[in-house]
Amino acid sequence: MVLSKRAQGHVIALITVFIWGTTYISTKVLLADFKPIEILFFRFILGYFTLWILSPHWFAWQGIRQELLFLAAGFCGVTSYFLCENVALTYTTASNVGVIASLAPVFTAILAIFFLKAETPPPRFYIGCLLAILGVVLISFNGKFVLSLNLLGDLLAVVACLFWAGYSILTKKSSNYNYNIILLTRRFFFYGLVLMLPALYIFDFEWELARFSKLANVFNILFLGLGASAICFASWNYAVKLVGAVKISIYIYLVPIITIVTAMLILKEPFTWIAAVGTLLTLSGVLLSEGKIRVKRD
C-alpha cells in the first residue's frame, strides 16, 4: 500500500521525534567531558558535512530577502535552540528538559496566528496553555518545593521552546518556495554555525580531540551529528513541508515520554509523583490547546 504524501509526513515526523527523544540522554552523557557549546559545534559541523555528502550540489544565493529568512532559521533552530537546551541540561535533568520541550507546539500555534494566518484559537487553547504552564512549574520543583539551580535550567528549556517555535514557522515559510530539503537544511546549518562562532569565544571553546578516544563520546557525537542533526533535521523539514508547521509540531509532545523512559533506564534519573503530575498536566494542556487549532493556508 502506497501512503499519501500527508501520511508519509506523519510517519516521518513520528520516527524523527522518537530519535530526538533520546538526544537529551546523549547530550547529558557528553556533558561529563564537553562544554555545551563544544557539543553544539561538533554536532553541527558533523551534520553540515554529512548533508554535503547526501547532496553534493551547490545551493545558489537566493537573494537578500530569502537569505535573511534562512539566517533567521539558522539562528533560531540551530544556534539558539540547542545552545539553550545544552546549557539547560547542565542545570536540570534530561527528563525535565524533555517534558518542557512539549510546550513547543503551543508556542508554534501562537506564532502561527501572526505569521501563518492561523485562525484565532478557541478558549480551550488558553486553558490548555495554563495547564501546561502549571505542569512545567510542578516539574521544575520535582518534589522539593524550593528554588534552586534547577529553575534556571528549566527556564532555559522554556526559552529553547520559543526558539524552536520560531524555527518551525521559518521552516514552513522557506519550504513554500519548493527548495530541495537537504540543500535548504544545509543552508540553515551553515548560518547556524556562522552565528555560533562568537559563542565559541564567549564560552571558552576547546578542541581537545583526545576526548574522542572514549568510545561513548564518539558514539554519542556521531548519533547527534549524523542522525539527530543531519538526517532528522532534513526529515523534519520534509514533514513540515508535507503536513504543515502547526499540525506536525504536535508530535513534539511524544518527546517527554521517550525521554523520561530512557532517562530512567540509562541515567537512573528519579521521577517523583509530583513530576508525574506535572508531566500529565503539561501533556494534557498541550493536547487540549492543540485540539482546535487550524491553519487557513498551509
TrEMBL record:
Recorded GO CC terms: plasma membrane
Protein name: Permease of the drug/metabolite transporter (DMT) superfamily
Matches recorded under Pfam families: EamA
Transmembrane segments: none
Entries under InterPro entries matching the protein: AA-Vitamin_Transporters, EamA_dom, EmrE-like
Keyword Membrane in annotation: yes
Record's keyword terms, sorted: Cell membrane, Membrane, Transmembrane, Transmembrane helix
Membrane topology category: Multi-pass membrane protein
